[in-house]
Amino acid sequence: MDLDKKVSIAVVRRLPRYYRYLADLLKMDITRVSSKELSARMGITASQIRQDLNCFGGFGQQGYGYNVESLYNEIGNILGLNNKYQAIIIGAGNMGQALANYTNFEKRGFKLTAIFDVDPELIGKSINNIGIRDLETIDSYIKDNKVDVAMLCVPYEQTPIIADRVARLGVKGLWNFSPMDLELPYDVIIENVHLSDSLMVLGYKINQKLKNGKNKK
Amino acid sequence: MDLDKKVSIAVVRRLPRYYRYLADLLKMDITRVSSKELSARMGITASQIRQDLNCFGGFGQQGYGYNVESLYNEIGNILGLNNKYQAIIIGAGNMGQALANYTNFEKRGFKLTAIFDVDPELIGKSINNIGIRDLETIDSYIKDNKVDVAMLCVPYEQTPIIADRVARLGVKGLWNFSPMDLELPYDVIIENVHLSDSLMVLGYKINQKLKNGKNKK
Questions:
Q1: What is the pLDDT of residues A36-89, one digit of tens each?
Q2: What is the pTM of this model?
Q3: What is the spatial distance between Cα A80 and Cα A15, in angstroms, rounded to a whole number?
Q4: What residues of A are in contact with residue B203 (Cβ under 8 Å)?
Q5: Buried b / exposed e along B173-183 (16+ C-beta atoms within 10 A)
């Protein structure tokens, strides 16, 4: 299977969802699934599913469907979930603390090794057994430790400055929670989380439903 | 313009991003923009942009481009941002507190009116001037007040139970932060936020870059 083939980012963004659904099927001891059944569960058309999964090579078999376990493992491989990434959180406010308590990330290959903040009240404390360090010490921490990902939970105005600082230090990826499309002139991968985008989609759906005066999902 | 035309959810999900970019252009006093310029800024192909915006009627004009302000307003209308939704947060842990402090939502038409929790230490306190109430009182609160959206920041196991409870009480939309695809047999719109999906996409991109040993965004 040619994994180096260029896959569209729209397909990549759907893979975590396939991965979660397949995990549910595995838990229920379901060993095979057709694109039609996946379609009914996921609300994606069967043809879209076949097209998506074909991008990565022919996992399915006509009349048999997909082998749940092998499809699950393949998608995990494609997403690189077997890789181990070391991650730090910058900003131990509510969002940073919420992330530090969110144990699901470790299952996805992301291990939290440190948290940084500027607040003397917080420095020295721990969240979920991870110590909060002084942001002043981040340069030497990143130099001495292999840090792959920085999760940025800092105030809006500080975000580009801190992002710039850690990108220069060689962090490979930034996961940004400030409501901005962060861009940097460095060789760093940025994934921006826009919570209000999802809220706007919810508003759109409510609006459509009110207009149509009938059920619509 | 026929707004009732069925628009694919994939297009709808891109609209908040257009909306944010156009807001940036407005701030810079830019009055018109071509699909090509939008494409360069947003990393979406110009043809995809034209196709997306055509779904809602012909905003663009050949050789002139799009009028930034009118496109911005139209997308805001389509998203229903002029509607006012009353929202409550259920669960005043870190994620609930992060959302309560996130003032951006009000700009998107969502007004936070109450927060609910079960913890006696939290009940009676306020976050961002919104009082935390006893979850026991939520039924009468929803009956007495117009609540459009409940933001669910409760523990994983509690999520389906509380979702069911507020859906029965007539809340129109649920914004769910537990890592599950919540589904209910009622007439309620659910938007699930899967933070780790976004993290997996970041991992994928880092993995691709390491494999290719060259810049890739």
A1: 888 888 878 888 888 888 877 656 666 788 899 999 999 998 888 888 999 999
A2: 0.86
A3: 11
A4: 79-81, 83, 85, 108-110, 173
A5: bbbbbbbebbe
Per-residue pLDDT of A7-49, as tens digits, reads 788 788 889 989 999 998 999 999 999 988 888 888 788 888 8
> B79 and chain A: CB distance < 8 Å anywhere?
yes
Domain stop point among B57, B78, B99: B78
B 128-167 → A contacts, CB under 8 A:
148-149
**Looking at the structure, do residues A96 and A163 belong to the same domain, yes or no?**
yes
**Domain annotation covers residue A180:** yes
Pairs of residues, one from chain A and one from chain B, whose beta carbons lie less than 8 Å apart: 171
Cβ-nearest to B196 among A4, A104, A196: A104
Distance from CA of B29 to the nearest CA of A (A): 19
B96, B191: one domain: yes
Residue numbers of the domain that contains A126: 85-196
**Nearest Cα to A25, choosing from B181, B155, B10?**
B181
